[in-house]
Specification:
globular; 5-stranded mixed beta sheet; binds pyridoxal-5'-phosphate; 379 residues; alpha/beta; 15% strand
């Protein structure tokens, strides 16, 4: 199957009970057994649930993986990956990453003895110099949140294979429509399915996808043992969202391009960060590993004025000022005071998250309305 067919049919079959075309929401915690151990493959819904399984199969299909795992949130999915490690193990992570991932790594796992090195990965050779005998995992987010840096996944794969490390890629911003890290050789793909996969800002859910059976078994064991699963209703919502991923992404990309070009030519705008712009420092890699450039972008205003940035996001009408991204509706955020407030100012400024930085999740509305809204808010 090609990608657009997979979003609708990948890993799916009509429900065996009544032939329902959409998987029913199996709102049950447990399953009857005729004699102990004799059941239809399901015993308890933390371990397994048919609606969640349908979603996990869809995840695996979209990313060209063999095994999918669904969690109660993107962070729960990341948490499961870090639980593969032991005290004393070390992780090399991108230094520009989602604030919640940074908080999980530093505030939770540091005290369990897992050490994180946050480095700039735009030049992948930086990774090699940070590897030591305790390094076990490379954590990549590309494009990064919110600076839209693009990291060369193939180069990271070469380094991880050479040094026998696991390579995990947070593919939330790109989605499998634009980029498929497992095809490039990564070991684990992670998603905040809360974003584009769900696509309608109505559910919080996370995903992991892998190819390797042994690795999948370790992760399923963690999923069942730690129990951070998602419910059947939420699984259904993400499954429904995935069915239109390709058409939504096509429009997100078109609108993202138009907004990036508009802002690039605006006299009050200092910089626009969108990987599709030729001026983007990693445009060449983006062109190689992504099929288009998506609807996420950030920009700074001239003068880097905190108050002015706040005023712009307050004045927006069609764009909603809100955390999160990837829904059909356009959202705007001010990372320094919202999503990235948990990262100390000195740390976040080192990575470009300035006071005037505004992040846009460009939705699929009419582009004329989006541009008019930006125009009135900035002018
Ligand atoms: C790139 C990225 N990764 C992970 C997460 C965490 O996902 P969730 O909010 O579903 O826990 C987010 C949330 O914004 C994100 O943007």
């Amino acid at each position: 199957m090609k990608f657009n067919t997979k979003t609708i049919h990948g890993g799916q079959k009509n429900d065996p009970a009544y032939g329902a075309v959409m998987p029913p929401i199996y709102q049950t915690s447990t399953y009857s057994q005729s004699t102990p151990g004799n059941h239809k493959g399901y015993q308890y819904s933390r371990t397994n649930n048919p609606t969640r399984n349908a979603l996990e199969n869809a995840f695996a299909s979209l990313e060209n993986g063999s095994f999918g795992l669904a969690f109660g949130s993107g962070l729960a999915a990341i948490d499961a990956v870090i639980k593969l490690l032991e005290p004393g193990d070390e992780v090399i992570s991108t230094n520009n990453l989602y604030g919640g991932s940074y908080r999980l790594f530093t505030s939770i796992y540091k005290k369990f003895g897992v050490k994180f090195h946050f480095i700039s990965m735009e030049n992948a050779s930086n990774i090699e110099t940070s590897i030591n005998k305790n390094t076990k995992l490379i954590w990549v987010e590309t494009p990064t949140n919110p600076m839209m840096n693009v990291i060369d996944i193939k180069a990271c794969v070469a380094i991880s294979k050479k040094n026998n490390l696991l390579l995990a890629v947070d593919n939330t911003f790109a989605t499998p429509y634009l980029q498929r890290p497992l095809d490039l050789g990564a070991d684990i793909v992670m998603h905040s399915a809360t974003k584009y996969l769900g696509g309608h800002s109505d559910v919080v859910l996370g995903a992991l996808i892998v190819k390797n059976k042994e690795l999948s078994e370790k992760l399923y064991f963690i999923q069942n043992s730690s129990g951070a699963i998602c419910g059947p209703q939420d699984s259904f919502l993400v499954l429904r969202g995935i069915k239109t991923l390709h058409v939504r992404m096509q429009r997100h990309c078109e609108n993202g391009k138009a907004v990036a070009e508009y802002l690039s030519n605006h006299p009050k705008i200092e910089k626009v960060f969108w990987p599709g712009l030729e001026s983007h420092p990693n445009h060449k890699i983006a062109k190689e590993q992504m099929s288009d450039y998506g609807g996420m972008l950030s920009f700074t205003t001239k003068g880097n004025n905190f108050k002015e940035a706040i005023k712009i996001v307050e004045r927006l009408n069609v764009f909603t000022l809100a955390e999160s991204l990837g829904g059909v509706e356009s959202l705007a955020g001010h990372p320094a005071s919202m999503t990235h407030a948990s990262i100390p100012k000195t740390e976040r400024e080192k990575t470009g998250v300035l006071d005037s930085l505004i992040r846009l999740s460009v939705g699929i509305e009419d582009i004329e309305d989006l541009l008019a809204d930006l125009k009135q808010a900035i002018n």
